[in-house]
Design goal:
With 479 residues, this protein is mainly beta. The chain has one domain: Neuraminidase, CATH 2.120.10. The protein is built from 3 helices and 32 strands. β7 and β8 form a beta hairpin.
Length: 479
């Protein structure tokens, strides 16, 4: 039996009873008086593709990376999914919300290499109703496609055919950005524009950057995180790094929130065969990413001119050295009061102070943690008492009552109530056996906000390069 967690560092909740079986939830449906308690009600699922492309690289699948924003999204009564088929074609599917029937379109591009980081990300520009896709990039060039105007804002007025999409480009309508492009994430702004976040550079030597679409043209805004500066541990020093983002999310007041973690270029700072991820950091912006402050309000970066670095003041929300197999690009959210939350995972110190091998160490001992900032400015961390049993990522979802849900690898869902201060984490659903999911899942965060339905996309486990089915499954959350 493993040692008890260190209660000086975090509060551990109570683990609920898990039930296996096809779309079976644990516990009882809440009464009307307890409607604010977290719960998940399975609604069934649909199959997107009977045989989607399957290969494992970087311990993941190209169709199922939790850092995609968005691999699955909902807008104007329709849900959209993006993936690569067994013959490597990039596909966009759509369905009316609640329907089991998906329409699919091939957009004219084939995946260039067996690299699971070469995901497809989708975004919607509110002012002209276009769907934008960026795909097939890992520290390289990228491919970009956009739809005709109004395709997403008025979906029933447009046929779902290849003619609804423009040509595949190697720039954003002539805006090149960088030849070392990775991790696209789209986010509509409160003012109706569309941000594109990405990394320029490579792992351990890269910068977070932004571009913006105003409804007619793209503009490069520039970088806002730094790759330079010295980071030192008792073992050694590293001269360069990159910031991996857990996401970008607007709060109800229009503040843009970003959590992240640093990865060092030099392995001299850590023990064993470990990735050099360390510390959970936090920044925010009140002007759509033009300027950035720390949690205390001190400016730390100006996009395009002054960047935030590893030694910038007040960035660290949760300190952690590089010896604990901290996951990069996990997840985050903002509650109804505009307070930021993050979901992170690593191997706690009670299992040892050095994770010798990142993947095997995480599978054996990694745990998820909920990190949040309260209204007084204090940071809190609570362990989610459900072992990861995986080297991969979870995703954080907040419902209409600010209850928190951790959507974990293999289709497991744990939750904690806002009423408890998010301390009563309990496993509500376990799809490990029934879904046969490979690992990470892709959550439709837009649909949760619109109609209280938790949808996620997952791919069935396979072997080698044998294609496997791709599914979307739905759960009702409290409203």
């Amino acid at each position: 039996m493993p040692p008890a967690p260190d209660r000086r560092t975090f509060v551990r909740g109570a683990l609920g009873t898990a039930a296996l079986g096809a779309l079976t939830a644990v516990g009882h449906a809440p009464s009307a008086a307890a409607a604010a308690a977290p719960s998940v009600t399975p609604l069934g699922g649909t199959r997107l593709d009977p045989a989607a492309i399957y290969f494992v690289s970087y311990d993941g699948l190209v169709n199922n990376n939790a850092f995609q924003k968005n691999g699955l999204l909902t807008h104007a009564g329709h849900q959209y999914a993006v993936w690569y088929t067994a013959d490597r074609n990039a596909v966009v599917g759509r369905r009316a919300v609640g329907s089991a029937d998906w329409e699919t379109v091939r957009v004219g591009h084939r995946l260039s290499s067996d690299n699971s980081h070469n995901v497809i990300s989708a975004g919607v520009s509110p002012t002209d109703g276009r769907l934008h896709l960026v795909m097939d990039a890992h520290s390289s060039g990228y491919r970009y496609v956009k739809s005709v105007a109004g395709l997403i804002s008025a979906p029933t007025a447009h046929d779902w055919t290849p003619a609804a999409f423009g040509p595949v480009l190697s720039s954003l309508d002539g805006v090149a950005l960088t030849s070392a492009f990775t991790y696209p994430q789209f986010l509509p702004t409160p003012g109706g524009r569309l941000l594109l976040s990405y990394r320029t550079g490579v792992s351990g030597n890269g910068q977070a950057a932004l571009a913006e679409y105003d409804g007619s043209r793209w503009r490069e805004l520039g970088t806002w995180s730094s790759a330079t500066g010295t980071y030192t541990t008792a073992r050694g020093s590293s001269p360069s790094r990159n910031l991996y983002l857990h996401g970008l999310d607007y709060g109800p007041d229009g503040t843009l929130h970003v959590f992240g973690t640093w990865r060092e270029r030099s392995g001299a700072v850590t023990c064993g065969a470990n990735l050099t991820n360390h510390d959970t950091v936090y920044v925010r912006s009140t002007d759509d990413g033009r300027t950035w402050t720390n949690a205390a309000g001190t400016r730390v970066a100006t996009t395009g001119s002054a960047t935030a670095g590893v030694n910038s003041p007040g960035l660290i929300a949760d300190p952690l050295g590089p010896d604990h197999a901290l996951m990069n690009q996990e997840s985050q959210g903002v509650d109804s009061r505009g307070l930021p939350h993050a979901l992170i995972s690593y191997v706690p110190g009670r299992f040892g102070q050095c994770v010798a091998d990142y993947v095997s160490g995480r599978i054996a001992n990694a745990r998820p943690f909920h990190v949040r900032r309260d209204a007084s400015g204090a940071w809190h961390k609570t362990e989610v008492p459900v072992p990861m049993n995986s080297s991969q990522r979870s995703q954080l979802v907040l419902d209409a009552h600010d209850n928190a849900y951790a959507v974990m690898p293999y289709g497991r869902i744990a939750a904690a109530s806002a009423a408890s201060g998010w301390r009563d984490w309990t496993l509500l659903y376990d799809g490990t056996g029934s879904l046969n999911a490979f690992g990470e899942v892709v959550v439709d965060h837009t649909r949760v906000a619109q109609d209280g339905i938790l949808s996620f996309l997952y791919q069935e486990r396979s072997t080698g390069t044998t294609p496997s089915p791709l599914h979307v499954v739905d759960f009702r959350l409290p409203r």
